Amino acid sequence: KLQVSLQQVNAELENKHCELRTFQQAKESDEMALREQLTQKDEDVRMQREKVQELSQSYAALKQESENQKLNNSNVDSLLVQVKEKFQEMLAEKQQMMDAMAEEADSNLVATNHEIDSLKSQLQTARDQVSKLEYDMESQRTAEKNAFIEEKDREIQRLCEDLKDRMEEA
Length: 170
Known about the structure:
- The structure is a single chain.
- The protein is mostly helical.
- 99% of the residues lie in helices and 0% in strands.
- The chain contains one helix and no strands.
- The radius of gyration is 70 Å and the shape is rod-shaped.
């Protein structure tokens, strides 16, 4: 009986031993599967870290580019303001030059008008002088003609008197 019991215990022990081996094989298989999963998870984590690193670098580059762009925009805005100010200065200078030229032209026009008026006056004076000279010359010619005529009249009268005297003598 003891032997049957011992055989049963041995059979149970063998069963348990078999179960233990099955359990151990299952455990090793599970551990292997878990190691593979862990290795896969490690690989996934490593890849995720690489992606995060890449994204972080991309973000930093984009951020730097954005800062550079802001700086460039600021520089462009500053340059635009400077160009606008310079343009305004040049425009003001040109306007001053145009105003000065217009004033000078107006002044020249006034002077020219005065000169024209003076020349017209001089021309009128010259015309008046010419008219007076013509009148004086005409008067002088008339006076000379009259004097000539009077002289000829006197000569004729003297000749007539001489003729009369000769005729009386004869």
